[in-house]
Amino acid sequence: MGAKTALLAHADGDGPALLRQAVGAAPDRERTGALMDRLYRGWTVEPGGRSRALFEVVYPAPGEAFAGSWPGVDVLCDRRFMLDRPSQLPADLLATGPGRRTVLHAMHSVVDWLAFALWEDGRLVRSLSVTPDDGVIEDLGDPLPFELPYWAGEHPVEPLPEDEGGQLYPLPFHPLSLGEDALHALFGFNAEGHPADVEETGMLPYLVGEPGAAPRAAAAARPHRSQYYLMGPDGRPILIGEPS
């Protein structure tokens, strides 16, 4: 598995169903711009280049964000959502109002890390963050239906062969396997395997800079390349290199 994600969505109810309705419809540029202004208040934000398919941008380069807004649903891709404790997502990034839902999904295959969370009307319902090195980093709220078979031991990871140490996997399931089911349940598509229609949903690019920093224009100019990470002592992925 080589999946990496950094996703946040706001929806008036069933996000996957609303995203399916948006397939083939370009995101509303005015709505999307207003969304970026609201969620990146104090940041520098500049429109980037051409729109990209959602499946291409679920893990943007540093200094980039992708966003799309349609009636009833907003989707954003940005590495700032890769929180080892999703419950600490800043309140101003949550959708509030009756029936409004916020979902977060972050995954990194190099360290077998998964995090996802669900809020209803700004109230945290579920947050999970797991990695084999650190175990369960955060586990708040009741497991969601798609999780139950994993916690019940129905998706165990085969131990390593004897000639490779024969070690047991330190979790009752592989985080990336659960991550794929979480992505499908919460967003309506998968990071790997056969593409779903929703993956073709168009996303608008932006160059973003934290308060006091300029957008990293070079990020949009360079091609996307694989990057390699290790888990740092605080549980966050640390870039250790990328191919030349």
TrEMBL record:
This is Uncharacterized protein. Pfam families: DUF6928. It comes from Kitasatospora phosalacinea.
